[in-house]
Structure to design on (846 residues):
């Protein structure tokens, strides 16, 4: 983790569970642009399922590391708005994150090598950029967006936004080692119906060059390099683009199969006979 | 309302009922950028339910007032496209609005202290920026986007876009005073399933410091400051982030309860015994 | 087709079937901005139905021609990712297109007068902008976005991105001439429930000034200039904003009527008695 000063590039990304039918996303954008009309706002995702902090965390982990140095990522999935969870700004790698300290940033901060944080408590000089009284239900607009705008515009430095803050420990679901292999679980499905697990390419590399995948109903799943390699309707396992083992039904959706529901177990065992391609990602 | 000249900041926001599956939103953006490739376009909402002018008006009211001076808000929810409703540009506060004069802008113009409008009828100098023949079904692309682009880029002034226009009177649903209190109605639900009413914090402040809320089936609803204050499953009333009384089921959706359907009546009465927190917004 | 050099304006549009719930769109944006933080990204559509290349092609045709000269259109609807379809960049008119050569660009290239293409195979100088090993399942992020960013930023010229490539022939559904008229088909429905056909205004103009429209169940459909001209509930035919004949139910959705399902035939015949207004578009 760099300890140098954060140099904003005026890019702000937005990730929320607000959906795109209400005024909430627009209000965030207005607050950001009133602080600095030249900010470059980029929507990442507003369709995080309502209050699904884990899903929001996965979106941030999958997208934020690609952004250029100096980007501010504003993220609001905040079931505890108005209660005691801390409003924070965090730095990790060369990027910044603004939102609630409820685990939303745990995965991306870990992916970027860990972060350091401040609790948002503006100084008197910055106070005019925040509403006099924050809404009890919309800290995205009244707390997080002003903080993100001030940081991204250079009007405030990281250190100006509040006192040092120890990030809340995040409960991370981790794959478990089992005899001769690993057991992971299906965390979610993407838009194409692929069932994504919490087993990483690195987890599998530890098992050796060959492995086999078994679903909770005992089905053994063939291993493929890409979706197009399998005949339509066949269930295949592959390492997806974000580095996680995923189970796909070629040309179909894995949502429709019982053992591929979210939460389902996926067992991976070493297989000496196989030359499976988990480490060949291209 | 300022009568000074409108000074565009090159920001254009977009609010439509076009959804995000078709080419319509992209066509608007192309037309705007062909007039000025440096315009900064910001999507507010494209998921206004088809032809739901009232919902579009609520999105504009909830988002536009946060934008910086000189912003142009392009909004198209236009069931009467190709018929006699006027295409307009309106100024209110330090912001501009472009779209059909069908009530879409009534709430936000009122919130900004009232507006003045022009009917879009381009002068011969501006005509080359509009198609020779406008589509009868897509004035968003052929009339409103060119007008918004010309105004936002500074290529045209408000006065250049057409003759003065008297805004059509808008039918506004207003809460009704009833014996000892107010009766409002549920206008819609937001993404989180909260039932939003047309009763404002200001309406309630007139009743006094304490009040009680009753649904159409006689249920009395407890008053909370924020969602997190109530145990899961409890129905609570609170002043939402846009200043309207809303009814929420903590950790759940109010859509699923009969008396909380859209259109349902909500009665608010003074309650001397209560020290309810409607005026404490944070 | 201009054979002059492509002069990028730093605008990049994005069209995908990624939806807006996952990290995929955000990853594209990050890759583009890491190449050039000043690129102006504009979402066209991310709700192309999964792997529906024809729908993606219609969105591009309906939106891209409106953009200013020098725009780069990045489009990813790619059922064959990781298999043999070519990754390309194409020029047509004064615009550029980047994505898979699977028919996605056929309609918009034809609308712009035809295009010329290169197969993306970066030179050693450009290789550092691409990942060392591309994911087998996400060429959008690892191949197409870097190529689009390099072209839009001016860091690479069209000719630098790879060798000349002959575009794959696209199977285009075309209307068929039948005795005294034309038979087209309903290709899709837009968000408002209008049934769009593959018959163009130009096709109809060849029939003469008057014509009549018949659905597959024999219903004759009245011809209108715009939706608002017909009484609510009436089925009407009109030339839509993208120049295609469409069948609408005034104030309702054509999805709900059997003969108006996708794939349904629509017959158009010359009608000497009619002075129908197909060529009057507004």
């Amino acid at each position: 983790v760099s300890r140098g000063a954060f140099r904003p590039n005026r890019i702000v990304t937005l990730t929320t569970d607000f959906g795109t039918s209400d005024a909430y996303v627009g209000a965030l954008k207005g607050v950001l642009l009133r602080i600095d009309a030249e900010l470059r706002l980029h929507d990442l995702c507003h369709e995080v399922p309502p209050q699904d902090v884990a899903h929001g965390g996965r979106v941030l982990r999958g997208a934020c590391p690609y952004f250029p140095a100096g980007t501010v990522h504003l993220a609001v999935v905040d079931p505890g708005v108005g209660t005691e969870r801390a409003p924070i700004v965090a730095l990790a790698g060369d990027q910044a994150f603004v939102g609630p300290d409820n685990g939303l940033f745990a995965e991306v901060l870990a992916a970027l090598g860990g972060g350091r944080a401040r609790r948002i408590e503006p100084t008197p000089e910055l106070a005019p950029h925040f509403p006099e009284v924050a809404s009890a239900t919309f800290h995205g607009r009244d707390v997080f967006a002003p903080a993100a705008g001030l940081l991204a515009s250079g009007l405030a430095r990281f250190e100006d936004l509040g006192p040092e803050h120890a990030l809340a420990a995040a409960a991370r679901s981790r794959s478990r080692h089992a005899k001769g292999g690993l057991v992971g679980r299906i965390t979610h499905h993407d838009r194409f119906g692929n069932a994504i697990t919490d087993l990483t390419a690195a987890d599998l590399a530890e098992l050796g060059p060959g492995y086999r995948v078994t679903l909770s109903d005992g089905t053994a799943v063939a291993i493929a390099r890409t979706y197009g390699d399998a005949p339509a309707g066949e269930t295949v396992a592959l390492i997806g683009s974000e580095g996680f083992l995923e189970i796909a039904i070629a040309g179909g959706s894995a949502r429709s199969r019982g053992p591929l529901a979210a939460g389902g177990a996926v067992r991976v065992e070493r297989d000496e006979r196989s030359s499976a391609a988990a480490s060949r990602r291209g």
